[in-house]
Amino acid sequence: MAEKRDYYEVLGVSKGANEDEIKKAYRKLARQYHPDVNKASDAEDKFKEVKEAYDVLSDSGKRARYDQYGHVDPNQGMGGGFQGGDFSGFGDIFDMFFGGGGRRDPNAPQRGSDLQYNLTIEFKEAVFGKEMDIRIPRTESCDTCFGSGAKPGTKPETCSVCHGSGQQEVVQNTPFGRMVNRRACSNCGGKGKIIKEKCTTCGGNGQVKKQRKIHIRIPAGVDDGSQMRMAGEGEGGLRGGPAGDLYIVIHVKSHDFFEREGDDIYCEVPLTFAQAALGDEIEIPTLSEKVKLKIPAGTQTGTFFRLKGKGVPKLRGVGQGDQHVKVVVITPSKLSDEQKELLRQFASLSGEQTHENEQSFFDRMKKAFRGD
Protein backbone atom coordinates (compact mmCIF):
# COMPACT_ATOMS: atom_id res chain seq x y z
CA MET A 1 0.00 0.00 0.00
CA ALA A 2 1.37 3.42 -0.95
CA GLU A 3 2.27 5.68 1.94
CA LYS A 4 -0.24 8.45 2.55
CA ARG A 5 0.80 11.98 1.73
CA ASP A 6 0.72 14.70 4.36
CA TYR A 7 -2.74 16.31 4.39
CA TYR A 8 -1.27 19.83 4.33
CA GLU A 9 0.81 18.85 1.29
CA VAL A 10 -2.28 17.42 -0.43
CA LEU A 11 -4.16 20.74 -0.09
CA GLY A 12 -1.03 22.84 -0.72
CA VAL A 13 -1.35 24.87 2.49
CA SER A 14 0.96 25.54 5.42
CA LYS A 15 0.45 23.96 8.84
CA GLY A 16 -0.57 27.38 10.16
CA ALA A 17 -3.29 27.83 7.52
CA ASN A 18 -6.59 29.17 8.83
CA GLU A 19 -10.07 27.80 8.11
CA ASP A 20 -10.68 30.10 5.11
CA GLU A 21 -7.33 29.18 3.49
CA ILE A 22 -8.06 25.46 3.87
CA LYS A 23 -11.57 25.85 2.44
CA LYS A 24 -10.32 27.92 -0.49
CA ALA A 25 -7.59 25.39 -1.32
CA TYR A 26 -10.10 22.52 -1.13
CA ARG A 27 -12.60 24.23 -3.42
CA LYS A 28 -9.93 24.89 -6.04
CA LEU A 29 -8.60 21.32 -6.01
CA ALA A 30 -12.08 19.77 -5.86
CA ARG A 31 -13.00 21.61 -9.06
CA GLN A 32 -9.70 20.61 -10.68
CA TYR A 33 -9.96 16.90 -9.99
CA HIS A 34 -13.71 16.32 -10.01
CA PRO A 35 -14.36 13.27 -12.26
CA ASP A 36 -17.15 15.07 -14.12
CA VAL A 37 -14.62 17.70 -15.23
CA ASN A 38 -11.25 15.93 -15.22
CA LYS A 39 -11.18 12.79 -17.34
CA ALA A 40 -7.64 11.75 -16.37
CA SER A 41 -7.31 8.17 -15.11
CA ASP A 42 -6.09 9.29 -11.67
CA ALA A 43 -8.54 12.20 -11.23
CA GLU A 44 -10.99 10.23 -9.07
CA ASP A 45 -8.23 9.02 -6.72
CA LYS A 46 -6.87 12.57 -6.38
CA PHE A 47 -10.38 13.90 -5.73
CA LYS A 48 -10.84 11.36 -2.92
CA GLU A 49 -7.41 12.23 -1.49
CA VAL A 50 -8.29 15.94 -1.45
CA LYS A 51 -11.69 15.22 0.14
CA GLU A 52 -10.10 13.07 2.86
CA ALA A 53 -7.53 15.77 3.67
CA TYR A 54 -10.23 18.45 3.88
CA ASP A 55 -12.49 16.31 6.10
CA VAL A 56 -9.67 16.11 8.66
CA LEU A 57 -8.16 19.61 8.46
CA SER A 58 -11.55 21.38 8.45
CA ASP A 59 -12.51 19.71 11.74
CA SER A 60 -10.67 21.32 14.67
CA GLY A 61 -10.70 18.15 16.76
CA LYS A 62 -9.49 15.86 13.98
CA ARG A 63 -6.90 18.41 12.93
CA ALA A 64 -5.48 18.66 16.44
CA ARG A 65 -5.13 14.88 16.65
CA TYR A 66 -3.60 14.74 13.18
CA ASP A 67 -1.07 17.47 14.06
CA GLN A 68 -0.05 15.44 17.12
CA TYR A 69 -0.12 11.88 15.82
CA GLY A 70 -0.12 12.10 12.02
CA HIS A 71 -2.07 9.45 10.11
CA VAL A 72 -2.08 7.03 13.06
CA ASP A 73 -4.62 8.23 15.63
CA PRO A 74 -4.37 6.26 18.90
CA ASN A 75 -8.00 7.09 19.67
CA GLN A 76 -9.05 4.99 16.66
CA GLY A 77 -7.17 1.84 17.67
CA MET A 78 -4.27 0.02 16.01
CA GLY A 79 -3.74 1.41 12.52
CA GLY A 80 -7.12 3.15 12.57
CA GLY A 81 -5.89 6.55 11.48
CA PHE A 82 -8.54 8.90 10.18
CA GLN A 83 -10.10 6.42 7.79
CA GLY A 84 -11.92 4.25 10.29
CA GLY A 85 -11.78 0.64 9.22
CA ASP A 86 -12.80 -2.95 9.75
CA PHE A 87 -10.24 -5.05 11.60
CA SER A 88 -12.03 -8.39 11.36
CA GLY A 89 -8.81 -9.91 10.07
CA PHE A 90 -7.35 -9.76 13.59
CA GLY A 91 -9.99 -12.27 14.73
CA ASP A 92 -8.60 -14.92 12.39
CA ILE A 93 -5.08 -14.34 13.69
CA PHE A 94 -6.19 -14.74 17.31
CA ASP A 95 -8.17 -17.86 16.40
CA MET A 96 -5.16 -19.39 14.65
CA PHE A 97 -2.78 -19.01 17.57
CA PHE A 98 -5.01 -19.01 20.63
CA GLY A 99 -7.77 -21.44 19.65
CA GLY A 100 -10.94 -19.46 19.21
CA GLY A 101 -12.91 -16.63 20.70
CA GLY A 102 -13.78 -13.33 19.04
CA ARG A 103 -15.11 -14.84 15.79
CA ARG A 104 -17.96 -12.92 14.21
CA ASP A 105 -21.21 -14.67 13.44
CA PRO A 106 -21.37 -15.05 9.60
CA ASN A 107 -25.15 -14.83 9.80
CA ALA A 108 -25.27 -11.64 11.84
CA PRO A 109 -26.94 -8.58 10.27
CA GLN A 110 -24.51 -6.42 8.31
CA ARG A 111 -24.81 -2.70 7.62
CA GLY A 112 -24.93 -1.63 3.97
CA SER A 113 -22.21 0.44 2.33
CA ASP A 114 -22.35 4.24 2.09
CA LEU A 115 -22.85 5.84 -1.32
CA GLN A 116 -21.68 9.14 -2.79
CA TYR A 117 -23.67 11.08 -5.40
CA ASN A 118 -22.22 14.09 -7.23
CA LEU A 119 -24.91 16.68 -7.96
CA THR A 120 -24.32 19.71 -10.19
CA ILE A 121 -26.70 22.67 -9.74
CA GLU A 122 -27.04 26.19 -11.11
CA PHE A 123 -25.50 29.21 -9.38
CA LYS A 124 -28.82 30.67 -8.21
CA GLU A 125 -30.12 27.26 -7.11
CA ALA A 126 -27.22 27.15 -4.64
CA VAL A 127 -28.05 30.66 -3.44
CA PHE A 128 -31.80 30.21 -2.94
CA GLY A 129 -32.03 26.45 -2.40
CA LYS A 130 -34.08 23.93 -4.31
CA GLU A 131 -36.26 20.84 -3.92
CA MET A 132 -35.78 18.10 -6.47
CA ASP A 133 -35.86 14.36 -7.10
CA ILE A 134 -32.74 12.36 -7.89
CA ARG A 135 -32.39 8.72 -8.90
CA ILE A 136 -29.79 6.58 -7.16
CA PRO A 137 -28.70 3.14 -8.40
CA ARG A 138 -28.25 0.94 -5.34
CA THR A 139 -28.74 -2.54 -3.93
CA GLU A 140 -31.80 -3.18 -1.80
CA SER A 141 -33.19 -6.10 0.13
CA CYS A 142 -35.17 -8.43 -2.14
CA ASP A 143 -38.91 -7.91 -1.72
CA THR A 144 -39.67 -11.50 -2.72
CA CYS A 145 -37.57 -13.33 -0.12
CA PHE A 146 -37.14 -10.38 2.30
CA GLY A 147 -33.37 -10.68 2.08
CA SER A 148 -33.06 -14.38 2.98
CA GLY A 149 -32.13 -15.48 -0.54
CA ALA A 150 -34.40 -18.51 -0.22
CA LYS A 151 -37.47 -19.30 -2.30
CA PRO A 152 -40.67 -18.13 -0.56
CA GLY A 153 -41.98 -20.90 1.67
CA THR A 154 -38.48 -22.23 2.33
CA LYS A 155 -35.59 -21.02 4.44
CA PRO A 156 -31.80 -21.37 4.52
CA GLU A 157 -30.49 -24.42 6.34
CA THR A 158 -27.53 -24.60 8.70
CA CYS A 159 -24.41 -25.84 6.94
CA SER A 160 -23.73 -29.48 7.88
CA VAL A 161 -19.96 -29.04 7.49
CA CYS A 162 -19.24 -25.97 9.65
CA HIS A 163 -22.47 -26.20 11.69
CA GLY A 164 -23.22 -22.53 11.07
CA SER A 165 -19.83 -21.10 12.07
CA GLY A 166 -18.79 -20.35 8.50
CA GLN A 167 -15.29 -21.72 9.16
CA GLN A 168 -13.45 -24.99 8.77
CA GLU A 169 -10.48 -26.22 10.74
CA VAL A 170 -7.60 -27.47 8.64
CA VAL A 171 -5.06 -29.67 10.47
CA GLN A 172 -1.48 -29.84 9.15
CA ASN A 173 1.37 -31.93 10.48
CA THR A 174 4.62 -30.02 10.18
CA PRO A 175 8.21 -30.57 11.41
CA PHE A 176 7.32 -28.13 14.20
CA GLY A 177 4.25 -30.02 15.29
CA ARG A 178 0.55 -30.14 14.58
CA MET A 179 -0.86 -26.83 13.24
CA VAL A 180 -4.57 -26.02 13.20
CA ASN A 181 -5.69 -23.25 10.86
CA ARG A 182 -9.14 -21.88 10.17
CA ARG A 183 -10.50 -20.81 6.83
CA ALA A 184 -13.86 -20.06 5.23
CA CYS A 185 -16.02 -23.11 4.90
CA SER A 186 -15.79 -24.55 1.38
CA ASN A 187 -19.33 -25.93 1.55
CA CYS A 188 -21.20 -22.71 2.36
CA GLY A 189 -18.60 -20.13 1.32
CA GLY A 190 -18.26 -18.86 4.89
CA LYS A 191 -21.95 -17.98 5.22
CA GLY A 192 -22.85 -20.75 7.67
CA LYS A 193 -26.09 -21.39 5.76
CA ILE A 194 -27.01 -23.40 2.68
CA ILE A 195 -29.82 -22.27 0.36
CA LYS A 196 -31.18 -25.32 -1.40
CA GLU A 197 -34.00 -23.52 -3.21
CA LYS A 198 -32.91 -20.07 -4.27
CA CYS A 199 -35.21 -17.09 -4.71
CA THR A 200 -35.85 -16.62 -8.44
CA THR A 201 -35.91 -12.83 -8.11
CA CYS A 202 -32.49 -12.29 -6.54
CA GLY A 203 -30.84 -15.62 -7.41
CA GLY A 204 -30.14 -16.36 -3.76
CA ASN A 205 -28.22 -13.13 -3.08
CA GLY A 206 -30.96 -11.62 -0.93
CA GLN A 207 -30.42 -8.28 -2.71
CA VAL A 208 -31.41 -6.70 -6.04
CA LYS A 209 -30.22 -3.67 -7.99
CA LYS A 210 -32.76 -0.86 -8.18
CA GLN A 211 -33.08 2.76 -9.25
CA ARG A 212 -34.43 4.59 -6.22
CA LYS A 213 -36.05 8.03 -6.51
CA ILE A 214 -35.19 10.25 -3.55
CA HIS A 215 -36.67 13.68 -2.85
CA ILE A 216 -34.06 16.11 -1.53
CA ARG A 217 -34.13 19.66 -0.20
CA ILE A 218 -31.02 21.71 -0.97
CA PRO A 219 -30.81 24.47 1.65
CA ALA A 220 -30.28 28.09 0.60
CA GLY A 221 -26.65 29.16 0.79
CA VAL A 222 -24.87 25.89 -0.07
CA ASP A 223 -21.53 26.37 -1.77
CA ASP A 224 -19.42 24.37 -4.18
CA GLY A 225 -18.10 21.29 -2.36
CA SER A 226 -20.88 21.28 0.27
CA GLN A 227 -21.99 17.82 1.37
CA MET A 228 -25.43 16.55 2.42
CA ARG A 229 -25.95 13.30 4.36
CA MET A 230 -29.11 11.27 3.77
CA ALA A 231 -29.27 8.71 6.58
CA GLY A 232 -30.34 5.22 5.50
CA GLU A 233 -30.36 5.99 1.76
CA GLY A 234 -27.19 4.06 0.90
CA GLU A 235 -26.79 0.40 -0.03
CA GLY A 236 -29.18 -2.02 1.62
CA GLY A 237 -27.94 -4.08 4.55
CA LEU A 238 -27.49 -7.84 4.59
CA ARG A 239 -29.53 -10.27 6.65
CA GLY A 240 -31.74 -7.55 8.05
CA GLY A 241 -28.91 -5.11 8.73
CA PRO A 242 -29.49 -1.34 8.40
CA ALA A 243 -28.88 0.46 5.13
CA GLY A 244 -25.83 2.68 4.71
CA ASP A 245 -25.97 6.45 4.21
CA LEU A 246 -26.00 8.55 1.05
CA TYR A 247 -23.63 11.51 0.79
CA ILE A 248 -24.56 14.12 -1.81
CA VAL A 249 -21.63 16.32 -2.89
CA ILE A 250 -22.78 19.65 -4.35
CA HIS A 251 -21.03 21.16 -7.38
CA VAL A 252 -22.12 24.67 -8.38
CA LYS A 253 -21.90 26.02 -11.93
CA SER A 254 -20.29 29.42 -12.48
CA HIS A 255 -22.38 32.50 -13.39
CA ASP A 256 -21.83 34.83 -16.33
CA PHE A 257 -22.16 38.01 -14.24
CA PHE A 258 -21.84 37.17 -10.54
CA GLU A 259 -18.90 35.69 -8.67
CA ARG A 260 -19.16 34.29 -5.15
CA GLU A 261 -16.71 34.43 -2.26
CA GLY A 262 -18.19 32.89 0.86
CA ASP A 263 -21.50 34.65 1.49
CA ASP A 264 -20.55 37.74 -0.55
CA ILE A 265 -21.26 38.38 -4.22
CA TYR A 266 -19.00 40.35 -6.59
CA CYS A 267 -19.73 41.89 -9.99
CA GLU A 268 -18.39 44.53 -12.39
CA VAL A 269 -20.42 47.25 -14.13
CA PRO A 270 -19.22 49.65 -16.84
CA LEU A 271 -19.40 53.46 -16.57
CA THR A 272 -18.94 56.05 -19.29
CA PHE A 273 -16.43 58.84 -18.80
CA ALA A 274 -19.32 61.31 -18.39
CA GLN A 275 -21.03 59.17 -15.71
CA ALA A 276 -17.81 58.82 -13.75
CA ALA A 277 -16.90 62.50 -14.02
CA LEU A 278 -20.33 64.04 -13.45
CA GLY A 279 -21.95 61.35 -11.28
CA ASP A 280 -25.10 59.41 -12.03
CA GLU A 281 -27.67 56.99 -10.64
CA ILE A 282 -27.54 53.59 -12.33
CA GLU A 283 -29.48 50.34 -12.07
CA ILE A 284 -27.63 47.30 -10.70
CA PRO A 285 -28.85 43.67 -10.99
CA THR A 286 -28.69 41.69 -7.74
CA LEU A 287 -29.45 38.03 -7.11
CA SER A 288 -33.16 38.73 -6.64
CA GLU A 289 -33.98 42.17 -8.08
CA LYS A 290 -32.64 45.39 -9.61
CA VAL A 291 -31.63 48.27 -7.33
CA LYS A 292 -30.52 51.87 -7.81
CA LEU A 293 -26.88 52.79 -7.08
CA LYS A 294 -25.74 56.40 -6.80
CA ILE A 295 -22.39 57.12 -8.44
CA PRO A 296 -20.68 60.20 -6.95
CA ALA A 297 -19.04 62.71 -9.29
CA GLY A 298 -15.36 62.02 -9.82
CA THR A 299 -15.60 58.25 -9.29
CA GLN A 300 -12.43 56.47 -10.40
CA THR A 301 -12.28 53.18 -12.27
CA GLY A 302 -11.83 50.21 -9.92
CA THR A 303 -13.91 51.78 -7.12
CA PHE A 304 -16.01 49.30 -5.11
CA PHE A 305 -19.52 49.99 -3.79
CA ARG A 306 -21.25 47.73 -1.25
CA LEU A 307 -24.90 46.72 -1.38
CA LYS A 308 -25.54 45.52 2.16
CA GLY A 309 -27.58 42.36 2.57
CA LYS A 310 -27.72 41.61 -1.17
CA GLY A 311 -25.43 38.58 -1.01
CA VAL A 312 -25.99 34.90 -0.24
CA PRO A 313 -28.18 33.71 2.66
CA LYS A 314 -26.00 32.39 5.47
CA LEU A 315 -26.17 28.61 5.55
CA ARG A 316 -25.48 28.48 9.29
CA GLY A 317 -26.85 31.59 10.85
CA VAL A 318 -29.15 34.51 10.19
CA GLY A 319 -29.01 37.15 7.47
CA GLN A 320 -27.24 37.48 4.14
CA GLY A 321 -23.85 38.50 2.86
CA ASP A 322 -23.24 41.65 0.81
CA GLN A 323 -22.88 42.42 -2.89
CA HIS A 324 -19.73 44.29 -3.94
CA VAL A 325 -19.95 46.28 -7.17
CA LYS A 326 -16.75 47.27 -8.97
CA VAL A 327 -17.10 50.08 -11.51
CA VAL A 328 -14.92 50.19 -14.62
CA VAL A 329 -14.71 53.38 -16.66
CA ILE A 330 -14.89 52.56 -20.37
CA THR A 331 -12.87 54.65 -22.83
CA PRO A 332 -14.74 55.05 -26.15
CA SER A 333 -12.85 53.72 -29.16
CA LYS A 334 -14.81 55.59 -31.85
CA LEU A 335 -15.60 59.31 -31.62
CA SER A 336 -17.38 61.65 -34.00
CA ASP A 337 -15.69 64.87 -35.11
CA GLU A 338 -17.96 66.84 -32.80
CA GLN A 339 -17.05 64.62 -29.83
CA LYS A 340 -13.36 64.99 -30.61
CA GLU A 341 -13.65 68.76 -30.75
CA LEU A 342 -15.46 68.88 -27.42
CA LEU A 343 -12.72 66.74 -25.84
CA ARG A 344 -10.05 69.05 -27.28
CA GLN A 345 -11.83 71.97 -25.69
CA PHE A 346 -12.03 70.06 -22.39
CA ALA A 347 -8.31 69.29 -22.55
CA SER A 348 -7.49 72.89 -23.34
CA LEU A 349 -9.57 74.16 -20.43
CA SER A 350 -7.84 71.61 -18.18
CA GLY A 351 -4.41 72.77 -19.31
CA GLU A 352 -3.65 69.43 -20.97
CA GLN A 353 -1.85 68.82 -24.24
CA THR A 354 -3.27 66.08 -26.50
CA HIS A 355 -0.27 65.92 -28.92
CA GLU A 356 -2.68 64.98 -31.73
CA ASN A 357 -0.74 66.96 -34.32
CA GLU A 358 2.72 65.98 -33.21
CA GLN A 359 4.77 63.85 -35.57
CA SER A 360 4.78 60.17 -34.88
CA PHE A 361 7.77 58.49 -33.30
CA PHE A 362 8.69 56.81 -36.60
CA ASP A 363 8.51 60.11 -38.54
CA ARG A 364 10.83 61.73 -36.04
CA MET A 365 13.19 58.75 -36.18
CA LYS A 366 13.38 58.94 -40.01
CA LYS A 367 14.26 62.62 -39.85
CA ALA A 368 17.01 61.88 -37.34
CA PHE A 369 18.56 59.34 -39.73
CA ARG A 370 18.42 61.90 -42.57
CA GLY A 371 20.11 64.45 -40.38
CA ASP A 372 17.19 66.88 -40.58
Automatic annotation (TrEMBL):
<feature type="domain" description="J">
    <location>
        <begin position="6"/>
        <end position="70"/>
    </location>
</feature>
<dbReference type="InterPro" id="IPR036410">
    <property type="entry name" value="HSP_DnaJ_Cys-rich_dom_sf"/>
</dbReference>
<feature type="repeat" description="CXXCXGXG motif">
    <location>
        <begin position="159"/>
        <end position="166"/>
    </location>
</feature>
<dbReference type="Pfam" id="PF01556">
    <property type="entry name" value="DnaJ_C"/>
</dbReference>
<keyword id="KW-0143">Chaperone</keyword>
<keyword id="KW-0346">Stress response</keyword>
<feature type="binding site">
    <location>
        <position position="202"/>
    </location>
    <ligand>
        <name>Zn(2+) 1</name>
    </ligand>
</feature>
<feature type="binding site">
    <location>
        <position position="145"/>
    </location>
    <ligand>
        <name>Zn(2+) 1</name>
    </ligand>
</feature>
<dbReference type="InterPro" id="IPR008971">
    <property type="entry name" value="HSP40/DnaJ_pept-bd"/>
</dbReference>
<comment type="subunit">
    <text>Homodimer.</text>
</comment>
<feature type="binding site">
    <location>
        <position position="142"/>
    </location>
    <ligand>
        <name>Zn(2+) 1</name>
    </ligand>
</feature>
<feature type="domain" description="CR-type">
    <location>
        <begin position="129"/>
        <end position="211"/>
    </location>
</feature>
<feature type="repeat" description="CXXCXGXG motif">
    <location>
        <begin position="142"/>
        <end position="149"/>
    </location>
</feature>
<feature type="zinc finger region" description="CR-type">
    <location>
        <begin position="129"/>
        <end position="211"/>
    </location>
</feature>
<feature type="binding site">
    <location>
        <position position="188"/>
    </location>
    <ligand>
        <name>Zn(2+) 2</name>
    </ligand>
</feature>
<keyword id="KW-0677">Repeat</keyword>
<dbReference type="InterPro" id="IPR001623">
    <property type="entry name" value="DnaJ_domain"/>
</dbReference>
<comment type="function">
    <text>Participates actively in the response to hyperosmotic and heat shock by preventing the aggregation of stress-denatured proteins and by disaggregating proteins, also in an autonomous, DnaK-independent fashion. Unfolded proteins bind initially to DnaJ; upon interaction with the DnaJ-bound protein, DnaK hydrolyzes its bound ATP, resulting in the formation of a stable complex. GrpE releases ADP from DnaK; ATP binding to DnaK triggers the release of the substrate protein, thus completing the reaction cycle.</text>
</comment>
<dbReference type="InterPro" id="IPR001305">
    <property type="entry name" value="HSP_DnaJ_Cys-rich_dom"/>
</dbReference>
<dbReference type="InterPro" id="IPR002939">
    <property type="entry name" value="DnaJ_C"/>
</dbReference>
<dbReference type="InterPro" id="IPR012724">
    <property type="entry name" value="DnaJ"/>
</dbReference>
<protein>
    <recommendedName>
        <fullName>Chaperone protein DnaJ</fullName>
    </recommendedName>
</protein>
<dbReference type="InterPro" id="IPR036869">
    <property type="entry name" value="J_dom_sf"/>
</dbReference>
<keyword id="KW-0479">Metal-binding</keyword>
<feature type="binding site">
    <location>
        <position position="159"/>
    </location>
    <ligand>
        <name>Zn(2+) 2</name>
    </ligand>
</feature>
<keyword id="KW-0963">Cytoplasm</keyword>
<dbReference type="Pfam" id="PF00226">
    <property type="entry name" value="DnaJ"/>
</dbReference>
<dbReference type="Pfam" id="PF00684">
    <property type="entry name" value="DnaJ_CXXCXGXG"/>
</dbReference>
<feature type="binding site">
    <location>
        <position position="185"/>
    </location>
    <ligand>
        <name>Zn(2+) 2</name>
    </ligand>
</feature>
<dbReference type="InterPro" id="IPR018253">
    <property type="entry name" value="DnaJ_domain_CS"/>
</dbReference>
<feature type="repeat" description="CXXCXGXG motif">
    <location>
        <begin position="185"/>
        <end position="192"/>
    </location>
</feature>
<feature type="binding site">
    <location>
        <position position="199"/>
    </location>
    <ligand>
        <name>Zn(2+) 1</name>
    </ligand>
</feature>
<feature type="binding site">
    <location>
        <position position="162"/>
    </location>
    <ligand>
        <name>Zn(2+) 2</name>
    </ligand>
</feature>
<keyword id="KW-0235">DNA replication</keyword>
<feature type="repeat" description="CXXCXGXG motif">
    <location>
        <begin position="199"/>
        <end position="206"/>
    </location>
</feature>
<comment type="similarity">
    <text>Belongs to the DnaJ family.</text>
</comment>
<keyword id="KW-0862">Zinc</keyword>
<keyword id="KW-0863">Zinc-finger</keyword>
